[in-house]
Design goal:
Blueprint: H1 5-10, E1 18-21, E2 25-29, E3 37-43, H2 58-75, E4 83-85, E5 101-105
Antiparallel strand pairs: 1-2, 2-3, 3-5, 4-5
Pfam families: HIT
Organism: Aliiglaciecola litoralis
Motif (Histidine triad motif): 98-102
Length: 123
């Protein structure tokens, strides 16, 4: 896998507002937030896409979600809720080819047709 902005953040070659780190994962605030709270959780092991995750990576992927839940509790939004999502490849919206978990919070994250818990009729 080629070097990415995330491998440079892990190596501290590019600054980032790091909010969590352990031996396996790193979390930092997104530079282009899409919600009042928006951070990324990345594995320190470079894995390009969700399609490249191997069976032996399962504990690492679990650690990414555990880190997200820990940060959510620490920052006080775990009970109100949040969205945690990974994008995969161009049609999935992936722009950096090093898997990353987007965590968004601080506003309702309804998805049409269920926006704000109001079911709407689809055409």
């Amino acid at each position: 896998m080629s070097e990415t902005i995330f491998t440079k953040i892990i190596a501290r070659e590019i600054p980032a507002e790091i909010i969590y780190e352990d031996d396996d994962v790193l979390a930092f605030n997104d530079i282009n937030p899409q919600a009042p709270t928006h951070f990324l959780v990345i594995p320190k092991k470079p894995i390009a896409t969700i399609n490249d995750i191997q069976a032996e990576d399962a504990p690492l992927i679990g650690k990414m979600y555990l880190a997200a839940a820990h940060i959510a509790k620490q920052q006080g939004f775990s009970e109100n809720g949040y969205r945690a999502v990974m994008n995969c490849n161009p049609d999935g919206g992936q722009t950096v080819y090093h898997i990353h978990l987007h965590v968004l919070a601080g506003k309702p994250m309804g998805w049409p047709p269920y926006q704000n818990n109001i079911k709407q009729t689809l055409p």
